[in-house]
């Protein structure tokens, strides 16, 4: 069984081709998942000048990178073959592709000039991110997947990006085979709890059983990764801000602290929601009050900010884990690569919840990638969806609480 996966939710174009034994939806802990190809192009350096991801630019870059990456992935997977004669589309096929790419004629041209010249590869299904994310970016991946499905005659399945982050944390490396990475997928002992932390999301998700999710809490304003980016900008650091804050925090003088600690927002609230806008504002006021921001003071601010975020995330996670008596805690999302967060969760959970297993993603799998989308696809039964929509605010499940933006929209 082979699956091709496409990820274009934000500013990484990811294509992966995975192979496993058995049918889709029947992955067991003993099954081996071989990574035939896993290619990625990041746009981080392009968006650095904006201090964040610019949707129109992201869409343009995804469209530019898509076909070359698919060809590269097929080549790495040894599935790229060239027929004696290029494929000639019939009227109905031309109409189908024109309909799919009706808003992206340049992508249609790239598709036709690139993929009509290769043989249909031995791919059984295609998985593609349908949300959440930036809708202009999502559409590039969705349209490409649907066009490939029509051209190759294989089913397409939409995948929730956040479920991909959960699944990537459950991968265990195995010995490589013929130079290809191999993983097994752990099956959690339910109920489990997932903390999803990224540039656009901060959510505590209860997993009572496989494939079922309940959002216990979420950010009411800024996501944690967004807060890292904004604070980094205040301190004159580069984008993306998370790694820069972490590096600066490590240089903070030992034994020294700020005259006034930053707040730990909502750490003692009775719910599982988060709020980082006030913490970000507290940093802004602190920066404005200090006339001479020396490198040492900047490092102390970065450290206290990182400590605040870590303490809040940990406190909420521990409280939810104890209340729902979970057996396992899963960290996922780009911010889970943060060394402070990883080490603090590891030591604290081992001490306070000795019977609970902590799953952390490999740092190379914490950011957006096609592999995580393919893993979700392998756990599903292949059912073709003729129409897949880009859903920028797609949720794993309904939340018991509302974000500040949702409350304002309802009030308006």
From TrEMBL:
Recorded GO CC terms: cytoplasm
Keyword list, A-Z: Acyltransferase, Cytoplasm, Iron, Metal-binding, Transferase, tRNA processing
EC number(s) from the headed UniProt entry: 2.3.1.234
Origin superkingdom: Bacteria
Catalysed conversion reaction: L-threonylcarbamoyladenylate + adenosine(37) in tRNA = N(6)-L-threonylcarbamoyladenosine(37) in tRNA + AMP + H(+)
Function: Required for the formation of a threonylcarbamoyl group on adenosine at position 37 (t(6)A37) in tRNAs that read codons beginning with adenine. Is involved in the transfer of the threonylcarbamoyl moiety of threonylcarbamoyl-AMP (TC-AMP) to the N6 group of A37, together with TsaE and TsaB. TsaD likely plays a direct catalytic role in this reaction.
UniProt protein name: tRNA N6-adenosine threonylcarbamoyltransferase
Gene: tsaD
């Amino acid at each position: 069984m082979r699956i091709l996966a496409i990820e274009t939710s934000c500013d990484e174009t990811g294509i992966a081709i995975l192979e496993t034994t058995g049918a889709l939806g029947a992955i067991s802990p003993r099954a081996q998942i071989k990574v035939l190809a896993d290619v990625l192009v990041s746009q981080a350096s392009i968006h650095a000048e904006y201090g964040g991801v610019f949707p129109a630019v992201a869409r343009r870059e995804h469209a530019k990178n898509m076909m070359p990456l698919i060809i590269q992935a097929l080549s790495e997977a040894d599935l790229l073959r060239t027929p004696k004669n290029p494929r000639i589309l019939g009227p109905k096929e031309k109409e189908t592709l024109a309909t799919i790419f009706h808003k992206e004629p340049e992508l249609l041209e790239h598709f036709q000039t690139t993929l009509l010249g290769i043989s249909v590869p031995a791919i059984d299904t295609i998985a593609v991110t349908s949300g959440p994310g930036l809708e202009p970016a999502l559409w590039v991946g969705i349209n490409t997947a649907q066009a490939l499905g029509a051209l190759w005659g294989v089913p397409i399945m939409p995948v929730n990006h956040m479920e991909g982050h959960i699944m990537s944390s459950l991968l265990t490396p195995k010995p490589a085979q013929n130079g290809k990475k191999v993983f097994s997928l752990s099956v959690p002992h339910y109920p489990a709890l997932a903390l999803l932390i990224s540039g656009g999301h901060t959510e505590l998700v209860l997993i009572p059983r496989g494939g079922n999710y309940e959002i216990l809490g979420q950010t009411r304003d800024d996501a944690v990764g967004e807060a890292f980016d904004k604070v980094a900008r205040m301190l004159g650091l580069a984008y993306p801000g998370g790694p820069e804050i972490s590096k600066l925090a490590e240089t903070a003088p030992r034994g020294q602290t700020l005259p006034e600690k930053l707040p730990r927002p909502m750490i003692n609230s009775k719910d599982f929601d988060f709020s980082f806008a006030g913490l970000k504002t507290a940093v802004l006021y602190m920066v404005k009050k200090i006339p001479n921001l020396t490198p040492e003071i900047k490092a102390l601010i970065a450290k206290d900010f990182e400590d605040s975020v870590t303490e809040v995330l940990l406190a909420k996670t521990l409280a939810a884990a104890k209340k729902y008596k979970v057996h396992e805690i899963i960290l996922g999302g780009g911010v889970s690569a943060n060394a402070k967060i990883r080490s603090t969760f590891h030591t604290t959970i081992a001490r306070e919840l000795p019977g609970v297993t902590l799953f952390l993603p490999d740092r190379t799998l914490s950011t957006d990638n096609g592999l995580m989308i393919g893993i979700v696809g392998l756990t599903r039964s292949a059912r073709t969806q003729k129409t897949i929509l880009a859903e920028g605010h797609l949720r794993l499940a309904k939340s018991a609480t509302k974000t500040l933006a949702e409350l304002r929209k309802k009030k308006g």
